[in-house]
Amino acid sequence: PAQSQIAVLESVQAFLQRQHGLYIDGKQQESRSGQRLPVCNPATGQVIGSIAQADSDEVDTAVRSAHHAFTSGIWSALRPADRERILLKVADVLEAHSEELAQLETLNQGKSIHIARAIEVGATIEFVRYMAGWATKIGGETMDVSIPVPQGARYTAYTRREPIGVVGAIVPWNFPLMIATWKIIPALAAGCTVVLKPSEETPLTALRLAELLTEAGVPDGVVNVITGDGKTTGEALITHPLISKLTFTGSTAVGKRIGHAAVDQMARFTLELGGKNPLIIMDDADIAQVVPGIMMGGLLNQGQVCAAASRIYVQRSHYEGVMNALIDAVNGMSIGPGMDPDAQINPVVSRRHQQSIYRFLEQAKAEGVQVHQGCKVPEGDGFYVEPTILSAVDHSHSIIHSEVFGPVLAVMPFDTEDEVLALANDSHYGLAASLWTTNLNTAMRMVPKIKSGTVWVNTHVPLDPAMPFGGHKQSGMGREFGKGAVESFTEIKSVCIAH
Ligand code: NAD
């Protein structure tokens, strides 16, 4: 049963007041390192808690716990149907605690409570249920082989998919709970065990998730959560010799470092990295849909979405109309804390990130870009950034090539289909794109020419656990979601039997 409002408030307050340790072997363990990092509420700038900075010895303890859990077979040797049943129970336990998780995330990450409820928690629960189903559907293939054989002999060959081992998972701060489950749940469906390091900015829901996994029946040591920054805790995890696979979501720069660390010990790896995603509006687009589509695709979670639209290309006849509509739309937006249900724009995650967005805007202004901002940010120390529209901007400006990861939309006109395809592809990123047209032929012609992992038509940003998600070019390697996500946590073994 879902918690009552009072129970939710009490749980959130009690959780915030706790001295958080590390989650190893099915329990909270006090950190011995003694170093702690503050955790803030972006709406107020106030410190609402602290986390331990795990040192390399503590990371080693967590990895060994996961390794022991893996080799003992308490998880990997379970019947697939039992793994599925426990993962379905995880979804039920998350559902029962959904309001508590949503509030905790809004208080720590800053996002709207509506988005926390619907996406961070709601979509996560759907994802867990979808992935649970794959636990019973992993399998190999049999194949007819042509090995020359002595007369009368035969070979039977088949493949097995076996869980890869201990997975090191490192996640960012924009959708902390959701992205943590994107790593943990397919790994568990495949029979792996996990050590998760959440972002030091937003560690709280990952620590709570670990407790709820235990409550749902995930055996001790199967999922461990270590907290701390990238340099100390993250590095100790990615270089640990008992890790068989690294799965990472975050910036391209850190992704490259993780890829190198993985290759050094031949750990497998999946990288979900940054994006600078184009949204293309053709002359024949349904213009009534376009402005709400841009607002959703570009400003969801204050633009702190790897797949967010940030380069808006408008075919010339609509350019002025779309530009004016966007400026009007952002001018009328209300900005406030994520817990305020009427606030349409909420704080970004941290002071550091707020300043980084402002630096991009200052640089753009210095290069001659026009910056339109119309609404007022609340007074106080919250980490707010006004929704911003850029005009007089083109591919000679640095902001077109940099991932700002904030509520900033650059709007540019174009004339021809070939021109916009060249502009859309003129990026070292290739995560996602959208195309707005009512002409099916135009869509079918253009989709194959856009170099990105996802192309939406007449929408921007919906993800589904069944649709593979990941990047071309410097937006990453490998895919999450779908059957492939579970398979990426397995090794293939070929078996050949002479008989
Ligand atoms: P980040 O790369 O700075 O940090 C991500 C995580 O890596 C954090 O947990 C951090 O502590 C850790 N880390 C940093 N240095 C490390 C190191 N040397 N070794 C091990 N771990 C290390 O990214 P961020 O600022 O948290 O998140 C924003 C970025 O994430 C954006 O670039 C965004 O596009 C990307 N992102 C991508 C996707 C996707 O699915 N493609 C989804 C969300 C966010």
Name the poorly predicted regions. Answer: none
Class of secondary structure makeup: alpha/beta
- Number of H/I helices: 15
What are the distinct ligands in this entry? nicotinamide-adenine-dinucleotide
- What is the 3D form? globular
Task: Explain this structure.
This protein is an alpha/beta fold. The longest helix is centred in the N-terminal third of the chain and has 22 residues, at 113-134. It has 15 helices and 22 strands. It is 40% helix and 21% strand. The protein is globular, with a radius of gyration of 24 Å. Helix 5 (113-134) runs parallel beside helix 6. The protein has helices at 5-17, 56-72, 80-96, 98-109, 113-134, 176-190, 204-216, 230-238, 252-264, 287-299, 316-331, 351-366, 417-425, 440-446, 482-487; strands at 22-24, 27-29, 36-41, 46-52, 142-143, 155-163, 166-170, 193-197, 223-225, 245-249, 268-272, 277-281, 309-315, 370-373, 388-391, 408-414, 429-430, 432-436, 454-457, 472-473, 476-477, 490-498. Strands 14-15-16-13-12-18-19 form a seven-stranded mixed sheet, with helices on both faces. A six-stranded mixed sheet has the order 9-8-7-10-11-21, sandwiched between helices. The model has no long low-confidence stretch (mean pLDDT 97). Bound molecules: nicotinamide-adenine-dinucleotide. Nicotinamide-adenine-dinucleotide is lined by residues 170-174, 197, 199-200, 229-230, 234-235, 238, 249-251, 254, 257, 272-275, 306, 403, 405, 431, 471, 476. Keywords: Oxidoreductase. It comes from Pokkaliibacter plantistimulans. Belongs to the aldehyde dehydrogenase family.
